[in-house]
Prior knowledge:
Helices cover about 15% and strands about 30% of the residues. By secondary structure, the chain is an alpha+beta fold.
Amino acid sequence: xxxxxxxxxxxxxxxxxxxxxxxxxxxxxxxxxxxxxxxxxxxxxxxxxxxxxxxxxxxxxxxxxxxxxxxxxxxxxxxxxxxxxxxxxxxxxxxxxxxxxxxxxxxxxxxxxxxxxxxxxxxxxxxxxxxxxxxxxxxxxxxxxxxxxxxxxxxxxxxxxxxxxxxxxxxxxxxxxxxxxxxxxxxxxxxxxxxxxxxxxxxxxxxxxxxxxxxxxxxxxxxxxxxxxxxxxxxxxxxxxxxxxxxxxxxxxxxxxxxxxxxxxxxxxxxxxxxxxxxxxxxxxxxxxxxxxxxxxxxxxxxxxxxxxxxxxxxxxxxxxxxxxxxxxxxxxxxxxxxxxxxxxxxxxxxxxxxxxxxxxxxxxxxxxxxxxxxxxxxxxxxxxxxxxxxxxxxxxxxxxxxxxxxxxxxxxxxxxxxxxxxxxxxxxxxxxxxxxxxxxxxxxxxxxxxxxxxxxxxxxxxxxxxxxxxxxxxxxxxxxxxxxxxxxxxxxxx
Length: 495
């Protein structure tokens, strides 16, 4: 940008031709000040970059998957000796839903990556002062017969949305043919919500729970997810000391072609252009506008091979009468749910569809249990290790990435703290995709450094190697420019 400066009092004339640009200035003192002004400008740029992050192209990968030797020990994830030579990458997380108190509970996630010739390995660790154990993931719980379900905890078997404090309701009887339920009591009429000048009628046969303090709970579905977030009434998912949701972590691998893709999944309906009680919901819930991606999701209430996981307490995954799938219990590991999202929807990469519609009706034998995991909670932290073959069978190649040495991949992360109310689309996420490079090199010996811990949830001290600091690079470059300018100034005026 060129400023509209007034040089009339100091400039005799301004002459511009095709070969050169000349400035004839009346005041010789101003001429002598120009070098000083240039130096001052350089210093201003360099030091201002300390406070303002300039948009600089960054080619250094933020996570490196190093070549290692050895096998995994998913019964004790993170204990393998090769992990000791790989530094943690401290990944900042943010709220998926701004202004929602139950969103963005986890401030950071520590990540390491490696490959051992056959498998891709990702190790995660994050602060979890109140781990959610002995609680179901609602979707698979719906497949379990009542006789088996009653032998476990019933925590998490239903997701309940909590509306913003101050929302009130009335039952309007002028809506003929409507039935409503309040605290399991049936009423003739339609529930109408009111909040700060907003009135919002709810669909026929809606059931709400009104707590003694006036808070309103609504059973979860995609239509209500879209409606209440769109109108600013969603406050979070309801929890109390005995009712909460499982903990989760997920890795998203981008498989599309955009150069700067977004990792934000859409809040939407069950299908495109769904008519939800007179509202048109254009997008499908869980779809990704930037194109296809594969998701690996670990759930403490479904995929954790532990007696603290109710699904494993009753051997659900070994019961083919429930799942219709063949699962071998290897005792020391669980699995990650493989998901596939694109612009059309969110799918499960198997033929059963416990969480989401199956991506295919046949031809994906064993795919639900293809990604192995090991998990443990200790010293206030969850530690979860993911293991998946570098190459997948052709039947999976459309839905999961093939990992190649020397290639970079866009990857994003998410964490859910179930006891704090995070579940489904209410979570802590990376603000965008990071780059993961599959390196042909071994890690060598790395001296670990203390991580910047933004919470005081544990006495354990994780180690960290943060992603490259672009702001620092800009600052250093600015200082170098300023020093060079000073040298030039000295040479010009030393006589």
